[in-house]
Amino acid sequence: MKQNDLILQTVTKVAAFVILLFAVAIFLGGHYSPGGGFVGGLMTSAAIVLLLLAFDLKTVTAILPIDYKFMIGAGLLISSLTVAGGLLFGVPLMTHAYRYIDVPLLGHISLHTAVLFDLGVYLVVVGVTMTIIQTIGESE
Amino acid sequence: MNNLTFLPVLWPLFTGILLIFIAKRIKLQRWVSLFSSLIGIVLSMYLVFSVHSQGILTLNVGSWEAPFGIVIVADMLASLLVLTTNIIGLAILLYSFHSIGIERERHYYYPVFQFLLIGVNGAFLTGDLFNLFVFFEVMLMASYVLLVLGGTKIQLRESLKYIIVNVLSSSFFVIMVAYLYSVLGTLNMAQISQRIAEVNQPAILSVIAIGFLIVFGLKGAIFPLFQWLPGSYYAPPIPVMALFGALLTKVGIYSIFRTYTLMFYHDQGYTHTFLAWLALLTILIGVIGAIAYWDIKKIIIYNIIIAVGVIIFGISVMNEQALSGSILYLIHDMLIKAALFLLIGIMIKLCGSDDLRQMGGLIKQYPALAWTFFIAAISLAGIPPFSGFAGKLLILQGAGESGNFLGMAVVLLSSLMVLYSVMKIFMYGFWGTPKADYRSAAVPVNKMLIPAVILVAISVLYGVATEFMYPFISQAVETLLNPDIYIKAVLKE
């Protein structure tokens, strides 16, 4: 019997975006308030998992055609390149730097290389969680 | 500031990441990991010579001063072990090309291999207790994957045991770190040592020392905590087994080296006597296992336990001869155990069985294999021109000097039993009449033999050129005997 989950799917379409936005907010606010790459990544994958629950694996892969294993690799690469940046500038590895920059619309903000490291963490967390869930979901 | 110190960890990390992206292209993976291993050896050799000429090298990661940030410390012991690890990594990689099989290679064998090297190198080089824990976990996670990769029945069963034991011991590690932190308020090894010296190791710190011994003993398989090892090491394919046998237990031993010479050395009457008894019992258990079995994998596995006992006994004696003996023996044992596993791997492939009673007469068709095995076997037992001799001799001298004659006797008798156990393999496996025409087995013996020959050759050189190696060893021992050198190098006072 085919179930009718119209309500679930409609709510999901709205809620997934809200969750994603919240995840990005948490990720970007990590330096000054609780949050950061790890929870941000978990929450992003929570949004994708919600999509998986409301629709099915095929639909979600069609919406987000991402190979999550490559995503893990990309995250690791970004983080470790940030670490290795010290080699280029002749300072100890993992030394971070920041600078205040005037960005149009956003105004006078500080950009810190730790964010790049965190971006790597974010990608790895999303990649790992989604790989686990997808693999278990696919296996018979 | 010296970024070189961390390169032996960073380099395999980048290789591992690159290999994730090219996981389906096996030829390319092989070339990339081979190239990376060669570079890794060059880097670690450069590290050894830099430490030799400049003394201990430290790196304050992230430019934070020593007790506050994580510090990477390359002293001579750590750099020698990193070099040995890289050499063994290269040999096992070469061996894997012809024996691990396409299916495993496609499922991220090479990336995980690199991650194991990251964990081992990192554990050797770190100067921070919690960072040591993290590198332990990196190493263990990779070893879980390597153990279970392939998914045969025995692998699934044994990896379950292995994971349970290691999860338990890791949580115990965290608990011990928590205790130590609440007593001393620091996690930097140099500062821990300094603060223990200030309070002169009261009873609570001796308790924590024994706690750490339990943790590292579980990783390194010493007497009452070794039961997981024979089964777990029996399950994986030969290259993985060689990797485990040569590297994993030795990281536990290295950690005992660090904790018992750098930190908890004030109450030796208690902690080090305890260590000595456990070491002797470990040797005893290993010997019983090594002479009991007819299964060649089991024989070599129990020889790991014997070697662990001998090295730990050297640490427990805590004088110059015994410590340098232990270090010499540790490096020798890593090389020769890897070589022996690779050699018996070829034997098992040829005979199609790991039971000695099913084998025989291999020497008629494969003389090179037989004589390489013979040299490896007598090196293991410690026959004079070869590599196991100098280390054991120094351990015996050290024990004699401190008056531990029981220990001397046990170590000497254990050598005899080691010789008996490996000669049993040689005599039953290689002598006699061939049980079958082994040439029909279609095994690429020559290609698989090359890495084993490289390892045996290095260990023979290592034995013959002990005189050349000795300055390096004595530099390592100097740091172990005088923790002040280490503390000064790290805390820059």
TrEMBL record, chain A:
Signal peptide: none
InterPro entries on file: CPA3_antiporter_subunitB (IPR050622), MnhB (IPR007182)
Primary location: membrane
Domain Na+/H+ antiporter MnhB subunit-related protein: 7-131
Bilayer disposition of the protein: Multi-pass membrane protein
Compartments in which it is found: Cell membrane
Any Pfam family matching the protein: MnhB
Keywords: Cell membrane, Membrane, Transmembrane, Transmembrane helix
UniProt similarity note: Belongs to the CPA3 antiporters (TC 2.A.63) subunit B family.
Protein name: Na(+)/H(+) antiporter subunit B
